[in-house]
Amino acid sequence: MNASASSQEKLLRPSMDTTRDIAAAAEIGKILGERLLLKGIPAVSVFLKREQRYHGKIRAVIDNMRDAGVKLL
């Protein structure tokens, strides 16, 4: 099973002022978390590449997935 969310989705774009800021990343994380739970996926593992750090947009997506109820392994 898989789930996805993107700022490029036609249904999401009108509700976002811009698709490139932290607020947009937070909204994507929330929607992705909700979609994962609807598909019956209660937990996910997140692996960051060596050059990626847990801040900014990455942090917004991950934190909002967690706030939606998805457990991170």
Automatic annotation (TrEMBL):
One Gene Ontology term, aspect cellular component: ribonucleoprotein complex
CDD domains: Ribosomal_L18_L5e (cd00432)
Pfam families membership: Ribosomal_L18p
BP terms from Gene Ontology: translation
Record's keyword terms, sorted: Ribonucleoprotein, Ribosomal protein
Domain of life of the source: Eukaryota
One function term, GO molecular function aspect: 5S rRNA binding
InterPro entries: Ribosomal_L18, Ribosomal_uL18_bac/plant/anim
Residues in coiled coil: none
Family of this protein: Belongs to the universal ribosomal protein uL18 family.
Name of protein: 50S ribosomal protein L18
